[in-house]
Design a protein that fits this description.
This protein has helices spanning 73-85, 109-124, 131-141, 145-150, 185-190, 209-217, 224-230, 233-243, 265-278; strands at 9-25, 31-50, 55-59, 93-98, 154-158, 162-165, 173-178, 248-251, 258-262, 283-288. By secondary structure, it is of the alpha+beta class. It folds into 2 domains: 3-165, 2-Layer Sandwich (Ribosomal Protein S5, domain 2); 173-295, GHMP kinase, C-terminal domain (Alpha-Beta Plaits, 2-Layer Sandwich). Helix 1 (73-85) links the parallel strand 3 (55-59) and strand 4 (93-98). Helix 1 (73-85) packs parallel to helix 2 and helix 1 packs across helix 3 (131-141). The protein is globular. The model has no long low-confidence stretch (mean pLDDT 94).
């Protein structure tokens, strides 16, 4: 294989749960979800090159929060893909992660990094693994990883493994805000008072900004209330977005990152600058979501 012709970097976008309904719980304890999720132009970046031995280095704003041992989802993804490859050549790789997304923040940072590792190493190693098998490997790493493997606007159901990509979904102007507090996902789920909530309503007939905003107003993030009880700073982040004239604001995933919707990218940039000036210690990013077509 001509390694020089193989792209050695992969983007790991932030995952934003625009809506997230908890609809039940399986006997094994996993929660059943329905979620509308999009992925952004802002995220982490993973590189990999052939090496004499496996390694992982991390740089970036949130590098200090990332473990480098077997707890790291990139390492777990590498090992799981190598096991699935069997006798095929999966030579050692030196990987380098630029960590721009806050850790344990509800926007799928670790899961997106793992998905990026699967895509990147599958390419570098020249593995002919079909989409179904790759999705199965992704699910073994965590419920969010199949969504992040798709990295397109999608509806996710079940524990996250049932993924339906949404074509013609518009790019959205977004501001992401995290008040600098990690929240434990298991702790948030444990604090849920009701686990058999109503599923998502039917999707809107039109995917324009106003139609989507009106649809979102009829949906929920069922994890938002317990997350606010655990960490009141979530409510502060939502207030900051509303004060910056977000057309819609909600927490993503299990928090603490919140997002605001804006009609244009320029309006989102101005709002982010305003929030950043008021809260210089927070993570604040203006970005746009990507479309299904952009990733083809």
């Amino acid at each position: 294989m001509n390694l020089a012709a193989v792209p050695s970097a992969e983007f790991a976008p932030a995952k934003i749960n625009l809506a997230l309904h908890v609809t039940g719980r399986r006997p094994d304890g996993y929660h059943l979800l329905e979620s509308l999720a999009v992925f952004t132009r802002f995220g982490d970046r993973l590189q990999a090159i052939p090496a004499e031995e496996d390694s992982l280095a991390v740089s970036g704003r949130y590098a200090a929060d990332v473990p480098l041992d077997g707890r790291n989802l990139i390492v777990m993804a590498r090992d799981a893909l190598r096991k699935a490859a069997g006798t095929r050549d999966t030579f050692p790789v030196a990987m380098a992660l630029e960590k721009n997304l806050p850790v344990a923040s509800g926007i799928g940072g670790g899961s997106s990094d793992a998905a990026a590792a699967l895509r990147l190493l599958g390419r570098i190693w020249g593995l002919d693994i079909d989409a179904a098998e790759m999705a199965s490997i992704a699910l073994s790493l965590g419920a969010d990883v199949p969504m992040c493997l798709a990295a397109r606007p999608l509806l996710a159901r079940g524990v996250g493994e049932d993924v339906a990509v949404l074509p013609a979904f518009p790019p959205l102007g977004l501001v992401l805000v995290n008040p600098g507090v990690p929240i434990s996902t298991p702790q948030v789920f444990s604090a849920l008072r009701k686990r058999d909530n109503e599923p998502l309503p039917a999707l809107p007939a039109r995917f324009d900004f106003h139609g989507l905003r009106n649809w979102l107003a009829a949906t929920r993030n069922d994890l938002e209330a317990p997350a606010q009880e655990i960490q009141p700073a979530v409510a502060e982040a939502l207030r900051a977005l509303k004060k910056a004239d977000a057309g819609f604001a909600r927490m993503s995933g299990s928090g603490a990152t919140c997002f605001g919707l804006y009609e244009t990218g320029n309006v989102a940039k101005r709002a982010a600058a305003l929030i950043r000036a008021r809260h210089p210690d927070w993570f604040v990013a203006a970005t746009r979501s990507t479309t299904a077509e952009a990733n083809e």
